[in-house]
Specification:
The structure is a homodimer of 417-residue chains. Chain A is of the alpha/beta class and 417 residues long. Chain A folds into 2 domains: 5-130, 3-Layer(aba) Sandwich (Rossmann fold); 133-320 and 361-416, 2-Layer Sandwich (Dihydrodipicolinate Reductase, domain 2), CATH 3.30.360.10. Chain A has 14 helices and 15 strands. In chain A, the strands form 2 sheets. In chain A, strands 14-13-12-11-7-10-9-8-15 form a 9-stranded mixed beta sheet. A 6-stranded parallel beta sheet of chain A has the order 3-2-1-4-5-6, sandwiched between helices. The first copy, chain A, starts with a strand and ends in a 31-residue tail after the last strand. At the A-B interface, strand 8, strand 9 and strand 12 of A face strand 8, strand 9 and strand 12 of B.
């Protein structure tokens, strides 16, 4: 077990800067290398390091291939544009460094295979930093699922439902990769915030797997309408043709017969939700409405033909995952209500201990592949497309890794001290 | 305009008896003929008529083909099993009687065409009694859509989400047709409660139409699990193989680019919802959570990055459809919060006036076809299947009929006196 580890950050936009700053608050993490194609971002990142951790001597890079070569690095965190995640992570693994990638979707199935190949050829782990796997609600639900509270799982819903019209339409001036993605592509561009937690509940790649999906895109009106509203009808942004459908719905089938409904929903007015819904034979949970039902536990009003909902947020303290309880006792840190801290620590603990990461390369490949497969299905008029088995059959015998200190289900193996 | 009309009821199970009893409360409706294959149901229906309206001389039938022949009948209401709706309605039209069908789905596309053919060859209208088109919330939303409150519509959700495990598993002893449907079929068996109101909002068959769908079914576990719980593992009900997936999700694409997500969800523990969700460029409504958003109208808390939901039920009085306001002043009658009364009156008013029905044969054909098309898609592994244009091109030039007193959008033509 290493006392300290040395980390490089590639991609220093808003998210990269934020994640790096959070790492700098951890005494055992030294960010010694930062990289971006934009020089001003590199300078700003170096300034932040000097301010927060004057004892660290950090170096800036314009080319990630130079950064990953540094022999003193233990790990590389990739916080670049979506389309660069896999190739930078692959380069890191092939240079012998633990790779962590921010969330995003793949541009091709081959891109996912490259990650798998790099891991299998080098033995170096690769983790997707899917922070929502460490969300308080998601962790509590995972614990309930592992305890069979909902009975056998049948169907789950999830979404990335976030009004990003302002960010997307103004993305070009902000050098944000979302702009080109929404302009040129059409599919579920950002599946993992909901799909990661769902995959954990369904044991995907651990006795279950995604087998196929079909995807349907609505027309595209929201971004144009917003641009006209905000910039005026004669502005160049009002003349852009956006390819991305406002609502993209994907249905995924699993080997064990469960279905998943995923929604990508960034281009219309709305209020944020991940639309998580868990349906089992004996219970259900629904984020929208903050409600849940466990057969036999819900109050049943006299004379009513059905029980009454229970409020999930009220019962959360008694449903909390042990990892969250431990985390609360330790004191909440970092963004997004603690998720960012937890997911970073899960990665760094694995790096320090030299163990597998709780979210591994097969998870990353399967989750990211949904984007390119969704695009394929949309392009072919919602034709069903198969999801590859990125484990090449290993999913049949794989179970959760009991050695990961921060494994999502570590608690079920009595690993907490 | 006829002062009184004479009506026959075919199918006298729970729903038939209920609808007939409601008709008997209307002074201008005379139920003079009742029909069922079960003799005890016919006797019971005749008893109800004698009690409620002793002045009516009603006759019982075992064969609907005899009932529809009666020359004194103005209309036939079909409240039989799903699989008999279309053939009885067709027989009624061909005998010159206005036909009304309870809700349900088709067993084949040909069945839908038969309805269309019978109408086009006879000129006799046929209405599906989709009561949810007259639900208070659905009417208010229709009015908001017609006023462009949500902006251009992009996507809608809907469901029949109703824990019917007890009714379905015990259906055989209760002579309920649901039993065989869930045992043998696999698809969205009951699409119209949500799809009818959605079709009205999207102007389906009136300048828009369903073009294709894809459907995915989860595994089937809920009914078996329930039967084991309730009857014991050795009971014959615990040994039934149910074909119907617990959750069947259908995605429908429309000619004007809108998408619809429909869910059939009767086999797991849950609390009732039609899961209605309306997504426009400038606003949204969501039944689950009782909330809505209209750009510029929602409160926006100081310092928050997004507005706050408004509660739909609280604002309903100011959003009510004029038809509902009129109805409330007249005094609410009938089941399901007034919907049953409104939908019956819509039909009977058309019969009395000799006009087209507000929900017409093309609506019935398109809505019912979703069931058989969903089965086809599920059978073929979620392959997309085309939805026929049951208007044979008339949808291009069809608009709402301004002559129907109870037309769903009558208010927009100043038809209320």
């Amino acid at each position: 077990m290493k006392d300290k580890i040395r980390v490089g950050y590639v991609g220093l936009g808003g998210r990269g800067k934020g994640q790096m700053s959070l790492s700098l608050e951890m005494d055992d993490i030294e960010v010694v290398a930062v990289c971006d194609v934009y020089d001003d971002r590199v300078r700003e990142a170096l300034d932040i390091i000097r301010q927060k951790r004057p004892e660290i001597e950090a170096q800036g890079y314009a080319d990630y291939r130079e950064l990953v070569k540094r022999p003193d690095l233990d790990a590389v965190v990739v916080t670049s544009s979506w389309q660069m995640h896999a190739r930078i992570a692959e380069a890191a693994m092939r240079a012998g460094k633990y790779a962590a990638m921010e969330v995003g979707g793949a541009s091709s199935v081959e891109e996912c295979w490259r990650l798998v190949r790099a891991y299998e050829e080098t033995g170096v782990p690769c983790m997707m930093l899917e922070n929502c796997c460490y969300g308080r609600e998601e962790l509590a639900l995972l614990d309930m699922v592992k305890k069979n509270t909902f009975g056998e799982l049948i169907h789950l819903d999830g979404a990335y439902a976030h009004d990003l019209r302002d960010e997307i339409t103004g993305g070009l001036i902000r050098r944000h990769y979302r702009f080109r993605n929404f302009q040129r592509r059409n599919g579920d561009l950002y599946p993992t915030h909901a799909l990661g937690p769902i995959a954990n509940m369904l044991n995907i790649n651990r006795g279950n797997r995604f087998t196929m999906l079909t995807s349907m895109a609505s027309k595209s009106r929201g971004l144009h309408d917003f641009a006209v509203q905000k910039y005026g009808v004669d502005h160049e942004y009002a003349k852009i043709n956006w390819n991305e459908g406002d609502i993209v719905t994907t249905l995924i089938k699993c080997a064990n017969g469960e279905t998943i409904r995923l929604r990508h929903d960034d281009c219309l007015t709305r209020i944020y939700s991940r639309e998580l819904c868990v349906r089992g034979v004996r219970g259900m949970y629904q984020e929208d409405g903050d409600r849940y039902l466990i057969e036999g536990e819900n109050p049943w009003p006299e004379g009513s033909w059905e029980p009454k909902w229970m409020k999930f947020s009220e019962d959360l303290p008694k449903r909390d995952h042990p990892l969250w309880k431990w985390f609360q006792q330790a004191g909440v840190k970092g963004g997004h209500g603690g998720m960012d801290f937890l997911v970073q620590r899960a990665f760094f603990e694995a790096v320090k201990a030299g163990t597998q990461t709780p979210i591994d390369v097969y998870d990353a490949a399967a989750w990211m592949s949904i984007t390119t497969l969704s695009e394929q299905s949309v392009a072919m008029g919602s034709l069903p497309v198969p999801v590859p088995d990125f484990t090449n059959g290993l999913w049949l015998d794989r179970g959760p890794d009991p050695k990961s200190r921060y494994a999502l289900d570590a608690v079920h193996y009595d690993l907490f001290d």
